[in-house]
Amino acid sequence: MKNRIKKSVICRGIENYSVDTSLPGYYVPQVGDLAVFEVIKIGKHKNIQGDQYRNITILPGDLIMAAFGTRYATEQFEGYVPDECLQEFHILGAGGTIGIIKSMNSKFHLVGPTIIRIVGYVVNEANEVINTRKLKQPEMHQFMGIHSLVSKVILSVGSSMDSGKTTTAAYLTRGLKAMGKRVAFIKLTGTIYTKDTDLVYDLGAEMVTHFGEMGFPSTYLCSATELLDLYETLLSKVQVVNPDYVVIEIADGLFQRETKMLLTNKRFTSSVDHVVYSCGDSLAAIHGIEVLKSWGIRPVFLSGLFTTSPLLVKEVNDNSELPVYSIDQLGNGQMMGCLEQKLMASA
């Protein structure tokens, strides 16, 4: 191939490979399969995040290496891996998740997705398609729940995508650090892109990790067993820094498939010490509390986008007894007494 192949971050560590250009004619892709694609038309994604974590500009004619995967993002795309041989696909996520879009947020209707054409599958010396998930499978741990012996787990959840979960997690981390605590951060679910983990690291976490490091282009449509094993694996991974607290973010909103699956799974919730809930307005705050209560979860405090409005904060305070913290209050550690006094409890 004449053009340089621009590797996306999901391809990090892939060095010894060749490209089989005959496979696209008869091979049906699976989640995690790597392939090389030619950029045909630029749409929403004008960049991909490269394997060195740098955002790389892409143009028609460029070759990129990426992985097949799914996506669930209410503010962006819904996409899947096709169950047939196709030639053209869409970039679902900038970290290198590729599939076919089923639906998109209306704000992207004019620009549309970036369209790519498959050139060939990335194969090893045995001419087997390299699959990111299969490569990492030997490193996966079976869920046992033993992590609770070493660290307190704080779960950051939200009413929807872009409700403030990551910002809450980042400033919570900063506040814990201000109180002299060692903190690790895990992005447990979502679509691979390191912006969230980068932010939390910048705000003081000793170590950050995410599902993509275990070969998942995304976690959409994973089984409960896969998610619990991933949880155990990433928790074990961060123990190398001996954290007092592990802050974990689950992507999207309460009703998203994997989020609801985890929050209604007693094996998972029984391993969590605290839940913090972020949301964008007062109604989402009050209704979300009731939803969590119906699942046996009582958040330790509220935060998120609504805290930028004093009037929304007042509405929440008038209708809930749960503490509310802005990012400034989180960042200077004002929530510490709340965390030390309360454990996640059944409502």
Secondary structure topology:
Layout: E1 5-7, E2 18-20, E3 34-41, E4 47-49, E5 55-57, E6 63-68, E7 71-72, E8 77-80, E9 88-93, E10 97-104, E11 115-123, H1 132-136, E12 152-158, H2 165-178, E13 183-187, H3 195-202, E14 207-210, H4 224-238, E15 245-253, H5 257-263, H6 266-269, E16 274-278, H7 282-294, E17 301-303, H8 310-319, H9 327-331, H10 336-341
Parallel strand pairs: 1-6, 6-10, 12-15, 12-16, 13-14, 13-15, 16-17
Antiparallel strand pairs: 2-11, 3-6, 3-11, 4-5, 7-8, 8-10, 9-10, 9-11
Helix pairs in contact: 2-3, 7-8
Looking at this protein, list some descriptive labels:
347 residues, 10 helices, 25% helix, 25% strand, globular, disordered C terminus
What's the shape?
globular
Radius of gyration: 21 Å
Number of helices: 10
Q: How many extended strands? A: 17
Strand line-up across the major sheet? 14-13-15-12-16-17
Word description of this protein:
- This protein is an alpha/beta fold and about 350 residues long.
- Helix content is about 25%, strand content about 25%.
- It has 10 helices and 17 strands.
- The chain has helices at about 130-135, 165-180, 195-200, 225-240, 255-265, 265-270, 280-295, 310-320, 325-330, 335-340; strands at about 5, 20, 35-40, 45-50, 55, 65-70, 70, 75-80, 90-95, 95-105, 115-125, 150-160, 185, 205-210, 245-255, 275-280, 300-305.
- It has a 6-stranded parallel beta sheet with strand order 14-13-15-12-16-17, sandwiched between helices. The protein has a 5-stranded mixed barrel with strand order 3-6-10-9-11.
- Helix 2 (about 165-180) packs parallel to helix 3 (about 195-200) and helix 7 (about 280-295) runs parallel beside helix 8 (about 310-320).
- It is globular, with a radius of gyration of 21 Å.
- The termini are far apart.
- The model is unreliable at about 345 (pLDDT under 50).
